[in-house]
Amino acid sequence: MIRAGRRFLSSLPALFGVLVFTFLLMRVLPGDPAVFFASGPNAGKEEIEVIRKQMGLNKPVPEQLMLYLYDVGSGNLGRSMMTGQLVTKDLRERLPASLELTLTALLIALLSAVPLGVLAALRPGSIIDHGVRFFCALGVCVPTFVSGLLLIYVFYYLLGLAPDPTGRVDIFASLPPRQTGFLLIDFLLAGDFDGWWAAFRQLILPALSMALFVVAPLARITRASMLVSLGSDFVRTAHSLGLPWWQVVVTYALRNAILPVITIAGIVFSTMLGANVLVEKVFSWPGVASYALDALLSSDYAPVQGFVLLMATVFVIVNLLVDILYGVADPRVTIG
Amino acid sequence: MTKSLLALSDLHVTFSTRRGLVEAVRGVTLSLGEGEMLGLVGESGSGKSVTGFAITRLLDAAGRITAGDIRFRGQDITRISAGDFRHLHGAAMAMIFQNPRAALNPIRAVGDQIADAITAHKRMPRDEARAQALGLLRAVQIRDPEKRMAAYPHELSGGMCQRVMIAMAISCNPALLIADEPTTGLDVTTQKVVMDLLTGIAAERGMATILITHDLGLAARYCRRVVVMEQGRLVEEAEPKTLFRAPQHPYTRRLVAASPTASSRIADLVPEEERGRHAAMHVALKPQPAPGTPPLLEVQKLTKRFDQGAAAVANFSMTISTGESVGLVGESGSGKSTTSRIICRLIDPSEGEIAFEGQSIGHIPARDFHRSLFRKDIQIVFQDPNDSLNPRFTAFDCIAHPLLRLGGMRPGDALRQRVEECAQRVGLGIELLTRFPHQLSGGQKARVGIARAIACRPRLLVLDEPTAALDVSVQAVVLQLLDRLRREDDLAFLFVSHDLNVVRMMCDRTIVLQNGHIVEQGESRAMFDNPKTAYTRELVEAVPHIEPKLAATAS
Question: Three-state SS for B26?
């Protein structure tokens, strides 16, 4: 735990750097929010100037930066011009949606990638191995919005198995009392199993199309590290002692092979969370990524900066979790 | 004659490689009685390990038994199914491997691993299996066995890991134990303890044992019968005494000659018929250095601490004069490598003074020493000829590199000449200079390493276990080469080794290190023949000799 704490502290400078860098980047990008948010295209110069003043954009950039840092320090990420709400409130509403989607997708990806990778490694060069490789290549080649649309076409339009792809729940359904923000958990806590099923059906298609995209790296790394593990001396020892087949594969080979998969899964998760904007758009998912994209298109500074800071923080936290998991899984990693 | 437990007849094993089929074992016929201990001796590539793996069906996927059969208790085990073989593994035959730490699962507690081995063949509750595992840890004489049950392999020393491996191998009382180089890479003293333990347990439980080793002395000490393999064939089979006193096959004769013993000299390392150049070489008497000249190297009160811990080397003082050869011996962790690296200025000492020809070099930081004029006077030959050569450099580039960096030479004919001259001096064919390290044999790589070290005509050569990774016959040639170079160039050697027999031959004086302190030093032969301290005596006695002492055979 001491090590984890130290890791967290050492990542604070990086977070600060991200903060300053995004701030400056937004100022450099073309587009004036004041023009954008003025009453209309015919707004006069004075009106824009007033808005600029209101927004503090007439002050010199270093002063703006200091004000911004002061605000961030006191927990205020500013107000979104689009929604008119505080950025912190917007993010807090949307982050659980993104997290729920990404976590489910990662879970699906891991549950399919690890067995596939193990199967491929057990019989390298066989039909299974080539099949897995083909499936992985397909998953990577097809962009998520295409696979998403395909899934909608098949399961919603043709088969009618899935509900219409419009967000997390049916518009007319009643939401459970908000406790964690994760609908699946909130429905369970409320004891509303019909609602849970409805939310699950909404979730499964976008999660699948995201999972398809990341199965490939996870399966490939599982296969590669499983091959190393199966060829290692200790697996030969296990064979020489007549250990049962499944014990050799699972307890001896797979447990050692899973270590690099944990690392990759952490990276994949962070990437998915930020980069799943396409899936969110296709399925009208009210997540943070689509929120940030909309903000970026309308030169809305505060939400974009808030989003980048959030992503950086999530990345740090995920890496910390990976570190801790690694320490649990591998006794050779010393804690202290 | 005891009942036959294992009989190989005309066994052939073939590996399919990129360059086609390679026959690793070409017709081995062998039998082993119950409770018998057999030594299987040979150099790398002789097929001795492959034979062992073929018996236990642990060959790599590329290896296949193409002919012959293996009868275990009368049954041909090359024909039984994998499922049936699993019931033999561990229960009827078990293996002990080289490199014990890698042979254990790194992320599973050793107690659990032993319990796994037990429950693989006997149905019993986990608690009972763990209790039996604890008993086995006691049987292999691990101190504090209760605590060690929860230890992971990386927390144990190499010798401890090998004991755990032995505990796993004997857990189901197999009738046959195959030990593949079980003590290679362990210290001599650890080697003795582990081998004594292994033979004791095998005798006590009546297990037949095949000891696969490259070390003739080890096989002679522990086995009643020894077979010698060369290039996949058995060349000789005899009792150790007759085998080593009167070897019949030319290969055995060469092998016996190449194995250093307590009394052998450099010239003895090749059999008489192949001796020639070396013995005939005229050895000029060294002119005595004028009185008052400082020694070539003088080290005073050297101390090295890593991270404020205990000193790895403490209060180490020595001198080497021009043309002298000094040995540095000790177990792993004794600080001999640290000392040699400080002297060749690869790491900085914490305290102490190093003077080369009277000029202090100890204060020059190691990272700047490559700019010092003395860099080319002190050169190093590294232990591992594979890892110490750049895989992207040809042999020519390797040897030319120091000449370009330290010798101030420019690419051109002069450089080519110098490199070729160096190659010739170490007996490396000119045609090999264009090859990359992976295209060279172990001995050739060792020669490249030596040629690189002598390219700039150094005065002092630091040799860090230069032959540890080589087969004995190659070692013999390399040692002769080093000795010749030393005489020709009046080179001084600091020879770091764990092999006392090699040090005894190569070095005028020897320093014995233990835990970073000098425990004894003196003229090599005199000191090893009559060690003064208990530690040195322990080291000397642990070395397995080809001819067991007469007293030992008489008793």
Answer: strand
The radius of gyration of chain B from alpha carbons, rounded to an integer in Å, stands at 25
Q: How far is CA B205 from CA B134, B143, B170, B174, B254, in A?
A: 18, 22, 9, 9, 36
Question: Among A232, A235, A236, A237, which would you mutate to test the B interface (most chain B Cβ atoms within 10 Å of its Cβ)?
Answer: A237
Kindly determine whether residue B116 and residue A247, on different chains, have CB atoms separated by under 8 Å: yes
- CB atoms < 10 A from the CB of B284, how many? 9
Closest CB to B120 among A233, A242, A256: A242
Host H or E run for residue B360: strand B359-360
Report the run of H or E that residue B486 belongs to, with start and end: helix B472-489
Strand, coil or helix: A216: helix
What the block records as the tokens of B12 is 């052939």
Instruction: Say if residues A251 and B127 touch (Cβ distance below 8 Å).
Output: no
Contacts of B158 in chain A (CB under 8 A): none
Nearest residue on chain B to A257, alpha-carbon basis: B107
Closest among B486, B452, B465, B463 to B376, alpha carbons compared: B452
Separation of alpha carbons A134 and B144, rounded Å: 53
What are the C-alpha distances in Å from B63 to residues A120, B49, B118, B388? 21, 12, 29, 30
Half-sphere exposure of A329 (CA within 13 A, CB side): 18
CA torsion B335-B336-B338-B341 (nearest 10°) is 170
User: Could you tell me if B66 and B2 are in contact, meaning their C-beta atoms sit under 8 angstroms apart?
Assistant: no
The β-bridge relationship of strands B63-72 and B4-17 is antiparallel
Distance from CA of B221 to the nearest CA of A (A): 27
What string of pLDDT tens digits covers the 555 residues of chain B? 456 899 999 999 998 888 888 889 999 999 999 989 999 998 888 889 999 999 999 988 888 899 999 999 988 998 888 888 998 998 999 999 988 889 999 999 999 999 999 999 988 999 999 999 999 999 998 888 999 999 999 888 888 999 999 999 999 999 999 999 998 878 888 889 999 999 999 999 999 999 999 888 889 889 989 999 998 999 999 898 888 788 889 988 888 888 887 777 777 777 655 554 444 444 445 555 566 677 889 998 889 888 777 788 888 999 999 889 999 998 888 888 889 989 988 888 888 899 998 888 888 888 888 888 888 899 999 888 888 899 999 999 999 999 998 888 888 899 999 999 999 988 888 889 999 988 888 888 989 999 999 999 999 999 988 888 788 888 888 898 899 889 888 899 999 988 888 898 899 999 999 988 999 999 988 898 889 999 999 888 888 876 644 334 333
Closest CA–CA distance from residue B49 to any residue of chain A (Å): 14
- Is residue B236 within 8 A of residue B252, CB to CB? The reply is yes
Spatial separation of the C-alpha atoms in residues B302 and B306, rounded to whole Å? 14
State the DSSP H helix or E strand holding residue B329, giving kind and residue range, or none if neither. Answer: strand B325-329
β partners of residue B522: B510
Which residue does chain B place closest to A122, by CA atoms? B61
Q: Which two tokens stand for residue A14?
A: 């990086």
Contacts of A255 in chain B (CB under 8 A): 107-108
Residue B339, exposed/middle/buried by CB under 10 A (0-12, 13-18, 19+)?
buried
Judged by CB atoms closer than 8 Å, whether chains meet at A252 and B108 is answered as yes
A264 Cα to chain B: minimum distance (Å)? 20
ipTM of the complex, rounded to two decimals: 0.80
Taken in order B191, B192, B195, B197, the sign of the CA dihedral is negative
Interface of B with A in 488-547 (CB under 8 A): none
Residues of A in contact with B56 (CB under 8 A): 240
Q: Which two tokens stand for residue A285?
A: 């998912």
